[in-house]
Structure formats: structure tokens, C-alpha cells
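Write out the 3D structure for:
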Amino acid sequence: MDFGLSEQQRDVQNLAREILGEQVTAEKLAKYDSYAAERFDRELWQQVAQAGLLGVAIEEQYGGMGFGFFEAALIAEEVGRNIAPLPFISHCISAAMPVQQFGSAEQKQRLLPGVVSGEQLLTAALMEANNEDPTQPRLCSAQADGEAVLVSGEKLCVPFAEQADYLLLAATDGDGAVVVMLPRKAEGVVLEAMEVTTYEPQYRLTLSNVRVGAENILARGEQAQQLLASVAEHTMAALCAHQLGASDKAMRMTASYTAERQQFGVPIATFQAVGHRAANCFIDVECLRLNCYQAISRLDDGVDASVEVAIAKVWAGDVGHRVSYAAQHLHGGTGIDRDYPLWRYCTWLRHNEMMLGSSARNLAALGSKIAAGEAFCA
């Protein structure tokens, strides 16, 4: 049995790698440092859209390629490999895929063609203060107003909220949860810029009786919980793919540096301690790859993947942490020099480690499932 990527998956991966590898350089990334400019390469975004990559997981009738989540995750991996200044995960995976899976025919027709072309930007508000679980919104409430709802509350760390046209958002109502596609320019929406170590545009979203019409309500009740569970797992798996790409690049950057840097007239890569440290990084990255692809493939097949996603997120956090430290150590002083690109990867590796729950949090949740006989204890 062939466990490798299919031809179409390799084609998607190679196309993304070619575009991002050519267009994202250390010199271009430097202009976004310390919020000197908005970290969103709109020209590159349009190139990615013209190549069809924004619609890789969108059905052909809406202008997409008609592939699946695995192909989208491969693109997320390449975005991570280049730490590209693009909202790929929040736009394509956290927001567009739920619209395709749970939206009405009218919502799909209104939103998805613009998603594919890049003319409309979507994002998702998944995190709240002291609450990293997207499936359990606590600080946003919704009150019925005829067929519409009035939404109030607060969300944190919403990526590209100011730049987006619609924000996927969940709130609690009398029947559980309601998920809406919130128009950014709706009356009562207040955005406050937040500063994060990666310089990605993120915002605090405050809502005060924001009226969302029936045409923008995506799901209610049990269907809303299914949507939120899907969003949480797919977004977490995509973050793992992004972490895989970033970890792999940091590891290879380190291998290249140690092969060129000389001490006592020989490359430091020939030193046993250096070789062992680099080899451990390689093993770590390949283990992350296997766990990440396992979770992604199960999600792509539409089977239960909650355990596999949790395992992948634990690996993503721990591997990113270890690779970041090893890369800094083996680079010596060069690793923390802001004229050298490694530090940007280290900040992203830490960011991905903590997003949607740290390794400790996910490991505790996984342990609870095992203790309850819900994981490998049938």
C-alpha cells in the first residue's frame, strides 16, 4: 500500500512551495517587523488566489478546485515553511470550510466565489479571555430579535479582523449556541488592535447589541455545536501543519548553518554533540509530520479524529519548542541576531505552541479521555 502523497496532492504542494518560496523573502518580511507595516501581503494574496489555491477545498461550482482538507493543510504547511504574511488558515479553513459544510445554498453562493477569487476576506473569532475552547463560547451572548439575533460580548486575538469582510463567530443563546457570519461593518462592532510577538494583525472584538440578520446566521443548536467542533479540530490540525512547515524550515536552516560555520578549521556539523542535537531535531520533525498527517487524513476522510488532533497538537507544541531551542543553541549568537531570519521562526513556533491550548492543556484533555475509556481503551 502506498502511503505517500497522491499526484494531485504533490502538485498542490509544489505549486504552493514554488509561489511562496519565490515571493516570501527575509527582506520582505523585515518590513513588517515591530508593526512597521501591516503584515498582509495583498499582492501575494492575489497571486495565490489566481493560482486557485484559495479554493483548493472549495467545490468546483463555486470556482474552487474541489479537493479536500488534506490539500488545504499542505498549503498551510507551506505557509508555515515560509511564515508567509497571509491569512490562509483563518480565511480558508476556519471560516470558508464551515460555510461550505453548514451554510445554506444562498450563503454559499454569496460568500464562496469571493473567497476563491480573493475578493472577499473571511476570518474566525475563536478565542475569548481565559477561554481557548472554540466549542464553548462563554463571553458572547445572542438574543432573538425576530428572525435575527442581537449579539453582545467580546472575543480576543481575532486574526485579520479589520481587513475581513465577515467574521465567523459563536455566541450562546437559550438553546445552546448560535454561529453567525458577522459583517465587519455592522453597527456596534468595535475593533481594537492587539500587539503579538509574530506581528500578525490581531484584534480585540467588542460587540454591543449587534444585529445579525437571518441571512447571516450559519447554524443554531445541535448543528452549531457540530460546526464548532469541526472548526476547532480543522483549525487545530491546520495549525499543526503550519508548525510542521516552520519547524522543518528552522531545522534545515540550522543544518545548513552548521555545515558552513567552522571552528578549529572544520565545520561544526562534524562535532558529535552538534550532530546529535541536529539529528534529534530531524527525528522530532518527522514524528510531528506522521502525527500531523494522521490527524489531517482522518479529518479529510470524515471520520472521528478528536484523539489524533489532540496528539498532533501536543507534538506540534513540544516539537516546536525543542526545535526552536536547539536551532538557537546551534546557531550561537547568530540565532538571536535580528538581521538573521531564524528569530522570526522561533516567535511563530512559540505562537503556534500556545494557540488553542498548550501541550499541557491538550495532554490533560487527552489523559481524561483515556481515563474515561474514550481513547485506545475500548
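The radius of gyration is 21 Å.
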